[in-house]
Sequence to fold (213 residues):
Amino acid sequence: MSVATKDRPIAAVREEVIDRLIMNYSHGEISLEAFESRLDSAMDSSDVVAISELASDLPLNINSDYQDKKKSALGTHYQEGDSKKLERIVNVLSSSKRAGQWHVPKEITIRNVLGSDTIDFTQARFNYQNIKINVNCTLGNIKIEVPEDVNIHTNVNCIVGSIDNNSNVDFISDAPTITIEGKVMFGNLEIKVKQPVKEKWLRFADSLKALFH
Fold:
């Protein structure tokens, strides 16, 4: 006997509905306008029954092929593969940037003196649930960019500098968690959401649609 919709976890229902919206949009069953409107409602609503009804009239259900493509495309969570446990980044009067599809080590140490560092986790592959970043920044700038569905904790001492953190405040239990510790002296640490979840869903939906049309 199945559990009544009203008694199910809202996060699980929301993800199932979004999956069905993407499946049906990518196969031409609903228009772009209808897809975006229903996607907005699914993400914004706090009524589990109302969310469920957004996909009640759609003919297609998700299948294993869809799940495989989703896992490959939306790989901000855990992926199988090799990853170093420690990576050190040292910049003195220089700059560095890590972006694209890369495997995140368990611990990253950044030493920055009059330099510039950017670490972009938007398309990163996580092999560990808990990631630690140690920062030691003097007269430099460090920018950390994360997708919306990654947890960020900070414990950084700032001395005549600035810390700008616009990451999410809600904790997502099954998402990777990045803990940032250390100190910033006469410098700047910026933590920002680069890719909202809705943008990621839309990009994935369009990529699937391109396969079928």
Summary: The two ends are 39 Å apart (CA to CA). The chain has two domains: 5-76+197-212, 86-195. The helical segments are 10-26, 32-44, 48-53, 64-73, 197-212. The longest helix spans residues 10-26.
